Amino acid sequence: MKVYNFWRPIVISLIILLLFSCKSKNETKPTITTLLETSESWNGNQLPNYLKGKPEVTILKVVIPSKTKLAIHKHSVINAAVVLKGELSVITEQKDTLHIKTGDAFTEVVDTWHYGINNGNVPAELIVFYAGVEGVPNTTAKQVE
Predict the structure, then answer these.
(1) Which phi and psi (to 5°) does residue 36 adopt?
(2) Beta strands in 16-113 (DSSP E)
(3) Which residues, at least 6 apart from 119, have a Cβ–Cβ distance to it below 8 Å?
(4) Biggest distance spanned by C-alpha atoms of the chain
C-alpha cells in the first residue's frame, strides 16, 4: 500500500502533463511574418514625418498589365506595398531604380517623381497601403508640358 500511495501522485501528474502537452491536429496558431519595417523609402531617403490632419488610410490592389509603363507621378504621403504576382521596376527622375518581384515588400518614395514599368510577361499585382491625411491626394500625376 505504501508503494501505491507513493506512485499515485506521480502517475496522475504525468497523465495530466501528457494531456496538456498533446496538441490537437486541428489546433492552429497564427503565423506572423514581418515583411517590412523601416523608416526609409526604397532609395534610402528618410521618410517624412506624418502629415497633420485627420488620418485617412487607403489600401489598394493595383494590377499593372504586362509591357506597361505608368505615367510619371509622386506620392504626397507615406505608402508601402507588397507584390503579390509578377515583377516591376520603379525608376525615379534621378534614375534610382528598384526591381521588385513576387513576395517583395517595399516603402515607396515620397515627394519624388517616379514611374513604374512592368517589362514582364504577366500582370504585376500589388497591395498598396497609404498612411494619408483627409484632403491630401495619395498620388499626383506630373503634368506633361
Answers:
(1) -160, 135
(2) 55-64, 68-69, 73-75, 78-85, 87-92, 97-101, 105-107
(3) 66, 67, 87, 89
(4) 100
Per-residue pLDDT reduced to its tens digit, 37-61: 999 999 999 999 999 999 999 999 9
Collect all residues with Cβ–Cβ distance below 8 Å to 83 and sequence separation of at least 6: 100, 101, 102, 103, 104, 105, 124, 125, 126
pTM tops 0.90, yes or no: no
Q: How many residues does the chain have?
A: 145
> What would the grid cell of residue 88 be?
516591376
* Segment 97-144, tens digit of pLDDT: 999 999 999 999 999 999 999 999 999 999 999 999 999 999 999 997
Q: What is the bridge-based pairing of β-strands 97-101 and 87-92? A: antiparallel
Q: How far apart are CA 68 and CA 84, in angstroms?
A: 17
